[in-house]
Write a structure and sequence with these properties.
Elements lengths: L2 H40 L5 H37 L2
Length: 86
């Protein structure tokens, strides 16, 4: 098997593993978010400011998560381009 073909196959496996792991992490984070919202709605001592603060934190985490995913996807695209040239 030539080296470039092996590298392409390895990249496909790595990308699949990353996507699967990332999607599992997203599902866990979304489930945690749902649980937090449910907890806050049932807790009378949680203030509106507290809810707003938590939502801002969740939004920042989602933005960072999406930027991380985009950076990794861009890296895969660039590496695939390099391998396609060979």
């Amino acid at each position: 098997m030539e080296t470039a073909q092996f590298a392409r196959q390895t990249l496909v496996v790595q990308r699949t593993m990353f996507d699967s792991s990332f999607n599992a992490m997203v599902m866990a984070q979304e489930q945690t978010e749902k649980m937090l919202h449910s907890f806050m709605e049932k807790s009378p001592w949680v203030t509106a400011d507290g809810k707003e603060s938590l939502q801002k934190s969740i939004d920042v985490a989602k933005k960072a998560r999406n930027e991380f995913k985009k950076a990794i996807d861009d890296g895969f695209v660039k590496f695939e381009g390099i391998l396609a040239e060979q």
